[in-house]
Write a structure and sequence with these properties.
The protein has about 110 residues and is mainly alpha-helical. It has one domain (about 5-110). It is built from four helices and two strands. A hairpin with a 5-residue loop joins strand 1 (about 5-10) and strand 2 (about 15-20). Helix 1 (about 20-35) packs antiparallel against helix 2 and helix 1 crosses helix 3. The longest helix has 29 residues, at about 60-90. It is globular. It starts with 5 loop residues before the first strand and ends with a helix.
Length: about 110
């Protein structure tokens, strides 16, 4: 898939309200992904990474939304999937438990209050 190097975000009237540099977004998301992944098991360290990234002067709240979504996608593709593959190759398939947990979350958290 070829994506453009940048995009302008527009409101419902077509007025530009934001700009995304996809190269910067990909770089930032990759760095965030690895910084978060290397803290796995240390919740305080994970929190410090999140705080550091959300407090960066060059990251607006809107940009952070795109950044977090991109970093999450990269984490699933480049950290979680290979980890699940390696564990399965060792004889432990964690995917059924993960699917069950996802089903539980969808069932329990999608309830309308």
């Amino acid at each position: 898939m070829n994506i453009p190097s940048e995009a302008y975000i527009v409101d419902d009237n077509g007025i530009p309200i934001g700009h995304i540099d996809f190269d910067k977004l990909t770089r930032d998301a990759t760095l965030l992904m690895y910084e978060m992944a290397e803290t796995a098991g240390d919740d305080a360290a994970t929190d410090r990474v999140a705080i550091r990234w959300t407090n960066r002067a060059d990251i607006t709240p809107d940009y952070f939304g795109y950044l977090a979504a991109t970093a999450l996608s990269l984490t699933v593709r480049h950290v979680l999937a290979p980890t699940l593959d390696a564990v399965a190759a060792a004889g432990v398939d964690l995917r059924p438990g993960l699917r069950a947990a996802a089903d539980d979350a969808r069932r329990d958290l999608n309830k309308v209050n």
